[in-house]
Design brief:
Radius of gyration: 21 Å
Shape: elongated
Largest sheet: 2 strands, antiparallel
Number of strands: 2
Helix content: 55-70%
Structural class: mainly alpha
Strand order of the largest sheet: 1-2
């Protein structure tokens, strides 16, 4: 298994950005050193992820509705 590495110094790391959870850091020092660069991408990533989750939930609901209609139609044919 590959060990995850800090996005700044490439040392082994486990801590993710608390907001977007997409970037890994070994310490708060490394995280703070790139925060100005990461901030906009972090916000955009979080926003896009939220939009994706909303769309995914709508698709799941639509698929469930279609399944119920298909089941209902198959019962009528029996």
């Amino acid at each position: 298994m590959l060990q995850e590495r800090c996005a700044v110094c490439l040392m082994p790391a486990q801590n993710r950005c608390g907001s977007c959870r997409s970037v890994i850091y070994c310490s708060r020092v490394c995280q703070a050193s790139v925060w100005q660069l990461h901030r906009n991408g972090c916000y955009n990533f979080k926003k896009k992820l939220s939009e994706f989750k909303e769309k995914l939930e709508l698709l799941k609901q639509e698929a469930l509705s279609i399944k119920r209609i298909q089941e209902s139609n198959s019962m009528k044919l029996d």
